[in-house]
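Lab meeting, item 3. Inverse folding demo.
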């Protein structure tokens, strides 16, 4: 039987395949970058901590640039994003009641609201975390950042606040993130066609609370890259704001800032878009001012119009708002924050004792601390701290109120003691209290706020003593400082620890 010859092209194909296979085996696989043990350990510990602390730690690791492996960095961001669902608070909040004319909130002293206001400033909430995730993605995965912004669409789920509420939403920080994404992902032709405007428009159209109007109008001010974009967004803003929000608590707090932003948008050369926005703003004012108001926001006939009304009137010189325009007969009550020192005689006695024991001395306009070697005085200090930290109050105080009081007593005493063993002993007793506090589970941001107060007041003692306690949150806080560092917060609010040093001030009239 004759031998069949193999076609030449098949021989060449086999040879080429063998050569390619040999080359593949000859190549060494790309080694996976080694993952620093300290960061791996920190992330493992963070998974066992409170969700807020876990997400914050994961994002800080990604933001620190200490992880250079893009695959691992993506895994870290993805896990942080998944954990955000377990975070307790939706977004930051701030006082919408009790503000004095100079912008302070002294009238909320010694209330739990002052504690929450300080706690919210750390931005350990869902919306703030999402903004950080989007910012990180914008560096490495613009399409995904764009998709997150598109999916959110400005729908933040903000229900109307009541007149009994002390706090109102602060959604401002997410809007600059939206602007950064919109600026980065659209080309000039796309902007000219209005594609960027259609991407941004939902963040203006879906305004649910008066507190969103100012940041939404700020977004509008930045997004005017073409005639089409400008028309789409101005029209969206005019439609979105001209309605009754039925939220006087938020409306009155936000009004003055909104007036200033509208003034900038409608200034300069007149045009129909600006006129429509100004008319929509006036319509919003009339609808909300004539609706149900909180009694503390009442505008009385025999008094001058409030400053915020006069500020708005600068936009309507031809037809300013009068008392008849802004008056209503429908009122829905007011907030009644609980002042702990008013309801607790035991807390008042401890406050008075704190002032006596500390016995602050002022020489040449400077505070002079006691001599810590004075054993009799040190004994009085320790006895006071023991009583303060074991104070049980009555059945009506919340866990947050009790920790507010005790943190205030401790802080008030520590500020009068120079660094010493006496000071360390007070920090140790306080950390023992907060390490076992239920507040770290029921309202972690408040608990973290009081920990941060000790860190600021005596960072050396905190770093030395906190490791003594088997608390997973302490462990992560300390490890994060060591492994990735923690930048100082911008202008941290003054600790409300000073509240018990003063008699509670009456709520000022609006």
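The presenter then showed the designed sequence:
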């Amino acid at each position: 039987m004759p031998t069949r010859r193999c076609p030449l092209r098949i021989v060449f194909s086999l040879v080429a395949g063998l050569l390619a296979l040999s080359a593949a085996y000859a190549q060494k696989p790309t080694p996976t970058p080694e993952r620093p043990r300290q960061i791996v350990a920190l992330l493992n510990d963070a998974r066992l901590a409170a969700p807020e602390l876990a997400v914050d730690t994961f994002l800080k690791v990604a933001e620190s640039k200490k992880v250079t492996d893009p695959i691992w960095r993506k895994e870290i961001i993805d896990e942080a994003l998944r954990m955000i669902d377990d975070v307790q608070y939706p977004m930051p909040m701030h006082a919408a009641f009790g503000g004095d004319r100079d912008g302070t909130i002294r009238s909320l002293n010694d209330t739990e609201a002052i504690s929450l206001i300080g706690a919210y400033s750390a931005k350990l909430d869902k919306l703030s975390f999402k903004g950080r995730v989007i910012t990180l993605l914008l560096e490495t995965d613009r399409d995904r950042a764009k998709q997150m912004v598109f999916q959110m669409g400005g729908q933040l789920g903000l229900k109307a606040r009541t007149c009994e509420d002390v706090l109102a939403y602060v959604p401002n920080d997410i809007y600059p993130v939206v602007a950064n994404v919109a600026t980065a992902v659209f080309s000039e032709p796309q902007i000219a066609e209005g594609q960027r405007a259609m991407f941004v428009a939902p963040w203006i159209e879906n305004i649910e609370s008066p507190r969103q109007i100012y940041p939404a109008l700020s977004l509008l001010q930045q997004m005017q890259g073409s005639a089409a974009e400008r028309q789409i967004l101005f029209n969206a803003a005019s439609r979105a704001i001209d309605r009754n929000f039925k939220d006087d608590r938020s409306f009155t707090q936000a009004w003055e800032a909104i007036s200033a932003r509208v003034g900038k948008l409608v200034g300069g050369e007149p045009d129909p878009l600006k006129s429509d926005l100004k008319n929509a703003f006036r319509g919003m004012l009339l609808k909300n001012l004539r609706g149900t108001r909180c009694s503390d926001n009442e505008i009385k006939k025999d008094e001058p119009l409030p400053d915020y009304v006069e500020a708005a009137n600068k936009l309507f010189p031809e037809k300013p708002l009068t008392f008849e325009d802004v008056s209503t007969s429908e009122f829905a009550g007011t907030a009644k924050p609980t002042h702990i020192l008013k309801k607790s005689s035991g807390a008042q006695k401890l406050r008075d004792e704190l002032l006596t024991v500390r016995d602050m001395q002022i020489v040449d306009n400077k505070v002079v601390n006691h001599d810590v070697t004075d054993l009799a005085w040190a004994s009085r200090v320790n006895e006071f701290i023991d009583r303060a930290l074991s104070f049980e109050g009555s059945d009506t105080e919340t866990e947050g109120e009790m920790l507010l009081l005790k943190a205030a007593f401790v802080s008030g005493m520590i500020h009068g003691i120079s660094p010493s063993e006496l000071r360390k002993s007070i920090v140790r007793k306080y950390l023992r209290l907060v390490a076992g506090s239920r507040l770290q589970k029921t309202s972690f941001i408040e608990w973290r706020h009081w920990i941060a107060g000790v860190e600021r007041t005596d960072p050396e003692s905190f770093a030395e003593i906190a490791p003594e306690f088997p608390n997973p949150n302490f462990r992560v806080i300390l490890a994060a400082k060591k492994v990735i560092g923690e930048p100082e917060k911008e202008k941290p609010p003054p600790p409300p620890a000073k509240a018990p040093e003063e008699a509670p001030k009456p709520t000022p009239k609006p």
